Amino acid sequence: MGSITLKNVQKHFGEAKVIPSVDLEITDGEFVVFVGPSGSGKSTLLRLIAGLEDVSGGSITIDGKDVTEAAPAARGLAMVFQSYALYPHMSVRKNIAFPLKMAKMEQSAIDKKVADAARILNLTDYLERRPGQLSGGQRQRVAIGRAIVREPSAFLFDEPLSNLDAALRGTMRLEISDLHNQLKTTMIYVTHDQIEAMTMADKIVVLNRGNIEQVGSPMDLYNTPRNLFVAGFIGSPRMNLIEGEYAQAKNAKTAGIRPEHLTLSKESGTWKGTVSVAEHLGADTFLHLDVDGIGKMTARASGEFGAHHGDTVYLTPDETRLHRFDDKGLRIAG
Amino acid sequence: MATQNTKTLARLMMAPSVIALLVWMVIPLSMTLYYSFQNYNLLTPQNVSFGGFFNYQYFYTDPAFFTAIWNTLILVVGVLAITVIGGIAIGLLLDQPIFGQGIVRILVISPFFVMPPVAALIWKNMIMHPSYGVLADIARFFGVQPVDWFAQYPLFSVIVIVAWQWLPFATLILLTALQSLDGEQKEAAEMDGANFLNRFIYLTLPHLSRAITVVILIQTIFLLGIYAEILVTTNGGPGYASTNLTFLIYRTARLGYDVGGGAAGGIIAVVLANIVAFFLMRAVGKNLDK
User: Which residues of chain B neighbour A82 with C-beta distances below 8 Å?
Assistant: First the structure.
């Protein structure tokens, strides 16, 4: 079990209202990702759930039990920290066993659980080593191991992959998703990387300045961003946001079109642009363009598109995929 | 070739300081060694002769010799225990965010700036004095017979004074070590269900082990040579109750005018200090290799 409910949760540091008020429902077994730029309050929100920070107002309920005032250890949650926070003078075995030892579990039961966790995480050969002798990915797995032996009602991850290099990040992303599929336990994952959010989440919570901008599945957020912030934050490369004549013609303050929903052509199209930078990735081509009458835009073509700096290219937006926003930055339906 | 030249030049440049240090160390040591084999008493300075091992035998058979060694050990161990335990306790307190943290820290460290004879005089006359010391005042306030500290508990009193002086040093080193403890590790332990005591035993103490080693090593070096505090307060007495090895040497050389005997005592002290250092390095030095 691991359903978590936040009701009107607030956090102030002195005068600064880091989190003005947040309501959120997390159902059992969900993989929820908090995503947002730095300073958006996503880590604070996670720490409030963990109990490492006290709420300034509101209530937190886990499995129907009010834990607003409960100590971190009493909430039945396990956390994986950004720096892994392994105990440097203990072997991997003792690190993983530590929470069980604190729970005064019998030694034989501890040994069995540690062995199980080590097997799941491929750490069996490293049990006698110290954290200092492990690579970043292995340390990450030890931190996860220390979390799973407790059999918590939910896992909390605080930007766990940000200290790893790009290749390892990709692998660990898969491993964590795999783990979620195996354990089917609620996971809350904080990241500033929208790719991690899109690839792993069942449900994404987009945060900005302590407010929830939108909650939804990755495809909800991609297809129907509720406002300009979500539109600009989710998706890579970013959505092109167009103001002025074109948007007015569509009865909107701002019109948004994703780079992948622009058709590129060398002969004709709605807009005419000059390539400033072309990024050829093989599978994709990203073109950064100066478009006449609009300004800078990004377009994405599947496969190779032979255009280089200074070339003239024509763009045609797929108007069924156009997003429209009013003067408050909110989405106009339809 | 260039590297060779640089190395030679570097050696040349270092030579003056190395030679100065060597001379500074070797000359007093060899002179002490020389005098320790001479019959040389300042009361009869004209009768200087080779004495063989007589001075060593004389010093060794001094009835105060084993008392002095024992007192030295108690002094060192006692002060180490108080400063390490007290230093950790004060360090833990100072590590908390409190109002006026900067000033409190300077106040805590200030005893270290008071020179030993001054500190000893203050303790002797203003704190531990049986008639007008602060402790006597307190005792009288509660209607208890004031304790004459230096007469009744001479060695303990000296330990207290020396510990008071070295507590800031231990606190300073241990506090910096405490501050370098990773905050996320503490939070992880908290989430793992470790209470304050468990966090201290399994997280803080292992983290501090290296700093504790440094405190013990450095303090032992200085504590083996404690002298001023004893001279100012108890003068080694009553009897030999607060005489340590250093003070015994002083007593032999300066009160007995026996240069040869004092020199022999000095050499014995050097040998004993090296034995202590050897065991200490083996016992706690392992901590530094990690």
Answer: 184
